[in-house]
Amino acid sequence: MTFRPRYTGLIDRYRDRLPIHDDTRIISLGEGNTPLIRLNNIPSQLGKDVDIYVKYEGLNPTGSFKDRGMCMAVTKAVEEGSKAIICASTGNTSAAAAAYAARAGVTAFVLIPEGKIALGKLAQAMIHGAVVIQIKGNFDEGMQLVKDVAEEAPVTIVNSINPFRLQGQKTAAFEILEELGAAPDYHCIPVGNAGNITAHWMGYKEYHEHGIVNSLPKMVGYQASGAAPFMRGEMVDNPETVATAIRIGHPQSWDKAWVVNKESQGWFDECSDEEILAAQKLLTSQEGIFCEPASATSLAGAMRDIKSGKIEEGSKIVCTLTGHGLKDPDTAIKQCEGDDGMITVDATLEQVKKAILDNMS
Ligand code: F0G
Hints:
Elements: H1 10-13, E1 36-38, H2 42-46, E2 51-56, H3 66-79, E3 84-88, H4 92-104, E4 107-113, H5 119-127, E5 131-135, H6 139-149, E6 156-157, H7 163-169, H8 171-180, E7 186-190, H9 195-209, E8 218-224, H10 229-232, H11 254-264, E9 267-271, H12 273-287, H13 293-308, E10 316-321, H14 329-336, H15 349-358
Parallel strand pairs: 2-10, 3-4, 3-6, 4-5, 7-8, 7-10, 8-9
Antiparallel strand pairs: 1-2
Helix pairs in contact: 3-4, 3-7, 4-5, 7-9, 8-9, 9-11, 12-13
The structure holds ligand F0G.
């Protein structure tokens, strides 16, 4: 039996690659080190010889990749003496901000679009004790308000325009490279504000420039059709999609993401809400992996590009699953309406036995 040192989060693990001092007080919940799961069933169902891995970021402490960036943003805010943090959010950033603020003993203010964030995320922000400010507007309006109010009140912005967020998030690329020993051919990722695609590219390039690996992936960013400014080539004023996490029309990392697109020779594309939900269900029912709708956008797009041959046979593909399925139970349950998965019977042996025998496959 060999004992492993206790995993204490990504700042400790990648201390040498992050802007941290020896005496910095680290605010961590053990984030990072998420599983890279090889899909067993979906590739053969596509009838293509491809190797697909999913990076299950839903297994971070608050259930999304935001924890990678938030541990850094809150650590640095506290180091700089800040007593309060603020963000606009479609849900996951607010959940992470609330949790890390609680851990650090500072106040979190979160602006969310009224009625448009998934239930689990709202529960998280509230139970961790954030001040939740619902606005009668969308994420993009909330983001502008956050920028404006931070000029007038002593609060640190922890949205991805905070450069420490991207520093933390780049570690996901490090983990992938360490496990695969080389870059995948394609990295497929859902895009909202485009912070995460930018952060991944930073991580890939850093290991490449330091000679740790000698390959780079093509970065492929997928958006929901109703919220696809990168496909339209301009900002979208009234974004709409079932994937509320990426219901964003004015991405904050617009220029940076176009640079990623160009440098990595990747592309952007869009997926309809139907394609997104179908991919979410396929992943849960065929692979046992439950991600939230926005996360399934990466697989939805990848499957389409694999089928069409744009992603060639023989490719190794990583799809980021950005958030856990439990974040949005309402959409999951709605997806199953009309299925015969739930049966109500009398509490008798006879009825239960019948329910089983009738449904054996
Ligand atoms: N997937 C999920 C589950 C998200 O929550 C987000 C962003 C994205 C993808 C897109 O990442 O913005 O870096 O391109 N959520 C933010 C939030 C906006 O407020 O939680 P991005």
